[in-house]
Amino acid sequence: MLNALQRAWAGFQSCSVLRFKILAYHSVAPISRSRYEIAAENFEQQMEHLAAAGYRVVALQDALRAMQSGSIDSKAVVITFDDGYKTLVDHAIPGLNRRGWPATVFVPVAHIGGRYESSELLSWADMKEAARGGIAFGSHTMNHRSLLELSNEDLRHELVESRRILASELGLSFHPLAYPYGYYDRRAAAAAKAAGYDLALTFGSILSNTSWTNPFEMKREQILCSTTLKAFSRKVDVRYDLPRKMWHMIVPEK
Questions:
Q1: If pLDDT is split at 50, 70 and 90, which confidence band does 7 have?
Q2: Is 127 within 8 Å of 172 (Cβ atoms)?
Q3: CB atoms near residue 97 (< 10 Å)
């Protein structure tokens, strides 16, 4: 009973203050071949919805500043991509550039220019070209290993080295992290902060980010191949947070 009341209160808090959404994509390709790959046509429809519904796509760094200053705009949306798939060059980045919209791509640094799970990833040249068009980059660690399973030494290596290499190659001054698989605990969050990251992103919560959100526990809405346009419209609309949270306590989100 106590846990239920605590969850209800957390939901009420998140729905009674200004808040914003961070969207998490993976691959965008001509056709969807997996749960995490969005068909390019569907991605374009989702971007058109954001524009038509009056959302403002903002940079992750700007969203963090607004969150910390208490000036959050509930029509603000942040777009992120995990893993840095090569398909973004042809099927996602051009549409974002055409609209003048920023986004952040999180890359497993040891695999840049190679392959991850049989799919080709962005090269350093791809990333530098994308950065000139307003795309930012962040760490998905070195090898995309679950941080929960690592020794303290390996955890530090995955975080510190990926941040160092990205900063060196791309001249970054803002350092975001996306936890691999969204998995983190207090140890991982503390290690990320100690490694010099500005924030870290996870998954797992329908509720939005508010001025009370811990920067190392920022939540993202996953957009999957099964996400219909109607479902997408509700994922980005903060007014649906509490109804969706209550519904998915009964029927878990797939």
A1: low
A2: no
A3: 16
Does residue 250 surpass a pLDDT of 80? no
DSSP code of residue 154: H
The stretch 80-103 carries a mean pLDDT of 97
Is the pLDDT at 16 greater than 80, yes or no? no
Q: What is the mean pLDDT of residues 1-16?
A: 49
Task: Work out the number of other CB atoms within 10 angstroms of the CB of residue 40.
Answer: 19
Q: Is the dihedral of CA 142, 21, 217, 146 positive or negative?
A: negative
Q: Within 13 Å, how many C-alpha atoms sit on residue 77's CB side?
A: 23
CA 187 to chain centre: 21
| Residue 141 C-alpha from the chain's centroid | 14
Provide the token pair at 150.
Answer: 């690592």
> Nearest-CA neighbor of 247 among 11, 10, 9?
11
Compute the distance between CA of residue 202 and CA of residue 179 in angstroms, rounded to an integer.
6
Task: Provide the residue ranges of all domains of the chain, joining segments of one domain with +.
Answer: 18-137+202-239
This prediction's pTM: 0.91
18-137+202-239 CATH fold: TIM Barrel (3.20.20)
